[in-house]
Prior knowledge:
Number of strands: 0
Strand content: under 5%
Order of helices and strands: HHHH
Distance between the termini: 9 Å
Structural class: mainly alpha
Shape: globular
Largest sheet: none
Helix content: 55-70%
Radius of gyration: 11 Å
Oligomer: single chain
Number of domains: 1
Amino acid sequence: MKRICIYPADVCLLTGRSETYSRRLLRKIKTDLCKQPGQFISLQEFCNYTGLSTSEIEEIFK
């Protein structure tokens, strides 16, 4: 089954940065996308925001 949501640990894996950085980045993405508290960030939204390729990220998470 394909994953839809992205979490701070995933961002750590993708970027090689700390979990603190990853939480801040996801919080900034949520703010910029006007997400409500409790709403998730999808892989597609993360890719659009960061400029990363969706297909490459999906390969990593298989």
